[in-house]
Design goal:
- This protein is α+β, with helices and mostly antiparallel strands.
- The protein is built from 4 helices and 3 strands.
- The protein has a 3-stranded antiparallel β-sheet.
- The longest helix has 12 residues.
Length: 76
């Protein structure tokens, strides 16, 4: 299996995790947010346009986290 050199392994793992099942912002933050400046997986994925938060109408913690078209293409 080949890996896109532009998507680090941990970031690829997060994208697969998001793609596997509907995820909320709160659930994603519990699993992927870190205070370690060497592991900014969530922040890098947002900055790279691989994921987005669909706010909906409820609290932010319940907003859906989804892959963007770019995020899906990186997993293909």
């Amino acid at each position: 299996m080949s890996h896109d050199p532009g998507v680090p392994g941990l970031q690829r793992q997060m994208l697969r995790w998001i793609d596997a099942s509907p995820r909320t912002y709160g659930e994603t933050m519990d699993a992927w947010r870190t205070s370690c400046p060497r592991l900014p997986v969530w922040e890098d994925s947002l900055a790279d346009g691989l994921v987005r938060v669909d706010p909906g109408t409820g609290p932010q913690q319940e907003a859906r986290v989804v892959l963007t078209m770019e995020g899906r293409s990186r997993l293909a």
